[in-house]
């Protein structure tokens, strides 16, 4: 009997995670002689635990194709981390029970480091329980902090959005700076790795171009040097644009925006670093300021996605299916850079053990000596990732034509399970 496949999305979504879903489903449909049903977990791994499996055969070809240009997580995602097998074997056994009940032979988990860890553990426990399932991790994270892979699908589009937003907002500030706002602070995501903030540096083409200051988690915040840099920018260029990563830390290693709470993964809940930085500028230098938080906008902006990113996101989804059909398990497709100029890339693979819970941070060679900018080496790495446009189709109303899934669930075969 042909084995069935289940795909699940995990964690914060990206502008192109659905392009990966499209790659998975279209490639799996091509192999209908080897793969039976193609399911998607409703709301990620929670849907698998609850036996809420979306039957993608109920979605027509046009809808699946439309996933390639639709933001969000079409099948639902979640922030739910399975604990270690010894701590909570019950949940791992439940996953295998669901796999057995629905004849699942392939489990594709689309997420970041935590998700890679989960897929790795599921691969191990399924073997022990006598129902081996081929588990493939599928890379995704806007933070670009996955190791081994050259870059993470989702990052290139967010990088493009942030760089463009930095240019556009700065032109606005510059035009009013003589009589109004002189300092603009843009907060972007990035808890421990500052790749997104660094990408804003692509906006600066000439001396004096914004952003004038980039604050990265990799560089401890030094108030005196920072304020001196702000003052220099205002006095020389008339205004100052600052891009700050949410995970910037002070000299003691404490997040500037630590709200004192924890999220579902046990990480410190950050309460917003932009107002902290902006208020410091006001209190110490007296400049009028404005701040903004890109927040969900940066990871939902499919309308300005990088073509390179869309193509890579689709490619890792298709490659994940091919790896599964090749008999692989406990592995992940990764992007390998072949050359910078011209930019060329290919798909390789790595083991999940090398990816799980490992964060890739910005190397020192990518950060300027003063800690407030990016080097030429960083630009060479970043620039190809934002290349090209892949606009979604637009309707007569002037709005993008995004798709929604029907999300028809397969019939349950097991008892209810509390998560």
Structure description:
There is one protein chain. The protein has 419 residues and is of the alpha/beta class. The protein has 2 domains: 3-141 and 303-358, 3-Layer(aba) Sandwich (Rossmann fold); 155-301, Phosphofructokinase domain (Rossmann fold), CATH 3.40.50.460. Helix content is 34%, strand content 18%. The chain has 13 helices and 13 strands. The chain has helices at residues 17-30, 45-49, 61-66, 89-101, 113-128, 155-176, 195-199, 223-237, 274-285, 295-300, 307-325, 352-355, 376-382; strands spanning 3-9, 35-41, 53-55, 104-111, 134-139, 183-188, 213-215, 240-245, 258-262, 268-270, 289-293, 331-339, 344-351. The strands form 4 sheets. A 5-stranded mixed beta sheet has the order 3-2-1-4-5, with helices on both faces. The chain is elongated and about 75 Å long. The model has no long low-confidence stretch (mean pLDDT 95).
The H-and-E topology, N to C, reads as: EHEHEHHEHEHEHEHEEEHEHHEEHH
- CATH names the topology of the largest domain as Rossmann fold
Low-confidence regions: none
How large is the share of residues in beta strands?
15-25%
Number of helices: 13
Distance between the amino and carboxyl termini: 31 Å
Coarse shape: elongated
């Amino acid at each position: 009997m042909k084995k069935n496949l289940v795909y699940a999305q995990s964690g914060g979504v990206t502008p192109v995670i659905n392009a990966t879903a499209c790659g998975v489903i279209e490639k799996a449909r091509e192999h209908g002689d080897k793969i039976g049903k193609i399911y998607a977990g409703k709301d990620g791994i929670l849907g698998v635990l609850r036996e809420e499996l979306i039957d993608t055969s109920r979605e027509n070809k046009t809808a699946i194709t439309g996933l390639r240009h639709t933001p969000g997580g079409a099948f639902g995602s979640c922030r739910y981390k399975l604990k270690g097998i010894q701590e909570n074997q019950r949940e791992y056994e439940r996953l295998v029970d669901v796999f057995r009940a629905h004849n699942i032979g392939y489990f594709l988990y689309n997420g970041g480091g935590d998700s890679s860890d989960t897929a790795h553990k599921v691969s191990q426990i399924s073997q022990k329980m006598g129902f081996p399932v081929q588990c493939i991790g599928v890379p995704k994270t806007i933070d670009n902090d996955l190791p081994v892979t050259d870059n993470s699908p989702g990052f290139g589009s967010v990088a493009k959005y942030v760089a463009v937003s930095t240019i556009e907002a700065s032109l606005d500030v510059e035009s009013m700076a003589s009589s109004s706002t002189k300092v603009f602070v843009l907060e972007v995501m990035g808890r421990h790795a500052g790749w997104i903030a660094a990408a804003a540096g692509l906006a600066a083409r000439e001396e004096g171009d914004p952003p004038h200051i980039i604050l990265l988690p990799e560089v401890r915040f030094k108030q005196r040097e920072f304020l001196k840099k702000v003052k220099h920018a205002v006095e020389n260029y008339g205004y100052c644009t600052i891009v700050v990563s949410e995970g910037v830390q002070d000299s003691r290693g404490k997040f500037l925006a630590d709200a004192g709470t924890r999220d579902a993964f046990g990480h410190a809940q950050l309460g917003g670093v932009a107002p902290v930085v902006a208020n410091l500028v006001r209190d110490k230098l007296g400049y009028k300021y404005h701040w903004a938080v890109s927040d969900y906008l940066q990871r939902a902006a499919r309308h300005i996605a990088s073509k390179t990113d869309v193509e890579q996101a689709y490619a890792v989804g298709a490659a994940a299916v091919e790896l599964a059909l090749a008999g692989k398990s406990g592995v992940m497709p990764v992007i390998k850079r072949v050359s910078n100029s011209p930019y060329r890339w290919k798909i390789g693979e790595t083991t999940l053990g090398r990816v799980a819970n490992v964060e890739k941070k910005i190397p020192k060679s990518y950060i300027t000596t003063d800690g407030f900018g990016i080097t030429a080496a960083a630009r060479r790495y970043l620039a190809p990732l934002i290349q090209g446009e892949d606009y979604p189709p637009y309707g007569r109303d002037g709005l993008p034509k995004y798709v929604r899934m029907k999300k028809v669930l397969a019939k349950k075969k097991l008892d209810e399970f509390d998560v």
